[in-house]
What we know:
With 445 residues, this protein is of the alpha+beta class. The protein has two domains: 27-74; 100-127 and 182-230 and 238-444, Porin. Residues 1-11 and 17-22 have low confidence and may be disordered. The protein has helices spanning 2-18, 23-38, 44-74, 181-184, 197-202; strands spanning 77-79, 85-88, 95-110, 122-136, 140-147, 154-165, 168-176, 206-215, 219-226, 241-253, 257-269, 276-278, 281-282, 293-294, 298-314, 317-330, 337-349, 357-358, 363-364, 380-391, 400-411, 416-427, 433-444. A 16-stranded antiparallel β-barrel has the order 3-4-5-6-7-8-9-10-11-15-16-17-20-21-22-23. A two-stranded antiparallel sheet has the order 13-14. A two-stranded antiparallel ribbon has the order 18-19. The protein starts with a helix and ends with a strand. Helix 1 (2-18) packs antiparallel against helix 2 and helix 2 runs antiparallel to helix 3. The protein is 17% helix and 48% strand. A hairpin with a 2-residue loop joins strand 15 (298-314) and strand 16 (317-330).
Amino acid sequence: MKLKTTSLLIAGALLGAAVLPAQANNDAMIDLLKVLRDQGTITAANYDLLVNAAKADSEASQEVANKVDKVAKESTSISLKGGHLKIKSADKAFSAQIGGRIMADYTFMDHDDNALSNEGNNSEIRRARIFLKGKIFNDWGYKAQYDFAEDKLKTKDLYLSYNGFDSTTITLGNHKMPFGLEEQTSSKYITFIERSAANEAFGVGRNNGLSVKTHGDNWTLAGAVHMEGVSDNNSGQDEDYGYGARITFAPIAEKTQVVHLGAAFHHQEFEKDGGASHEIAVNPQVHTADKFYTSVDVNAEDYDQFGLEAAVVLGPFSAQAEYFSRNVNAVSGSEDQDLDAWYVYGSYFLTGESRKYKAKAGEFSRVKPKSIVGQGGYGAWELGLRYTDLDLEDSNAGITGDITTIGLNWYATPTVRFMANYNMADVDGTSDDFDAFHLRGQIDF
Length: 445
């Protein structure tokens, strides 16, 4: 009798310790009770009692599990994956993401025999942006992004979009117009601290308008029509307007091997009676330096410009180049202008990473280091060399010159990067030159 009682206590202890949330564990316990019954260790009555108790506990545990699963499926999810705050409804029909970027720059300029820029050594918060973006009712998207750098509030993106068509997005509001590879690539991901002076001279940037973009697995086609940007001041005049298109094709679009080709067109119309002032003025790829690369200021009716772009990625090596040409139609009494510029650069990851290319967008994206600082790694290291040529001269007026940039990037994490650039700028026909050492620390979230 003592043996049977002891065995019963052992069986009860095993049953209580098992905490039977899973059917497999419950079945195993019942099999054990059968063995004890067949050996005569427990009576048939005790066997029935224990089996019924086990089944009751199992059903209760399963009911709790079902309720937990139901609550999880019906709850809004909040994620901080990759350091980005994202919120999604249970049915995934609604979402919101809050994020931003901070870029702190420090520049040291060489003023020996230099009459090109009067700026001294300086620092600035180049970008301090915050955004809210997401979707509503599955097919509708939105984004609002503002920049607080230089103690000024600037509207960057402010638009709504419709994504209900397969592979096609319609966007209305203030956003980037389809022109240029470097311009389409976010400042978070560009290889050098500043985009090339060629891009700054001929880029279209953000404007308030309507765009339609469609894509396949390795191509994109986008078109847009726009008025002026929301931050522009037209002083009560009719707003200028423009339209353009961009097409890209990637015959090779693998993870570490890419060939990208593209072309773009843009027409700009000036509505002011008697034409509008047209002058290109850009700095030597240092934001705080003077804009000493200039074209002649003419009264223009409109202009047409074209862009060609190409890029290649071969493992840790990449190269990228763009060419721009603008034909300015001046009003009577002023000279028409033909202006152009181009750049080419190469980069190499010493740690073996590759630039990430998004074939369905026709642009480059975030570099992810193979090892991350803070998780036992040392990040990714990249060397870069760029040459920019500017021809803003026509009819023996305007500036021509070139800029060479040497760059070093350290990607501590996918969202934290430190950059160092050395810029050497020349103006043709003068003995003046400009050198600057440029540093940046950036984070996006």
